[in-house]
Amino acid sequence: EWTRVKVPFESFQQVRGPRLVVDGPSLNVTGGLYQFGLSMSKFQIASNTTELPNFRPGYFELHIQQIGLYTASTITTSKTAAPVKKITPALQTLSEDEAKQKRPVLFKIISPILKLFFSEQSNRRRSAMKILREQRGYSRMSAIMYGIRCRINPQKKISSTIRSIGKTLSIAMTDAFRIVAKGMIRFGIFYPLKLTSQLFKLPFALIARLQKKNQN
Q: Rounded to an integer, what distance in angstroms lies between the CA atom of residue 91 and that of residue 125?
């Protein structure tokens, strides 16, 4: 059971995040429309940041059958439109544990490995380190000390200092393990595969060279 939603181009408004750009230009599609995206937010689209009154945190699923263009008299989609019943489906939210249980078994197995090599927090730390060193002139040690100071709570100075130092040591150990693991994969898997590929191509290269020599 699907609900057809029509949004005319003149209803689109310019935003920055959830904030509405007051007196922003209207959408101009005279030159063509090349990209389309969907963004979901817990905030209302307004000039100030206001949370939706009926917002509920949690996981949910939103199924989209097809996306197309329409005019006042016709509807154009990538497929023949199925009969539409005007019934609005209720959103069913999932808890984090329920979402994890529904993940495929293969994803559950490789997820810890993916988090190890593609950690968003690690990427952010590298970006912050790069900014501190290249734009602010910090040394690596100065940048690390700056991070420790930023995590210290003045109201709980001693305990927060201990936690901040512990957090820094934990990050350093995790990053060191990540570097070692990447090196092991590179030397234990990538380079051997690359060498095997080159050895496999070698006979064909020699045959091609001999054939070219015979032709000459």
A: 36
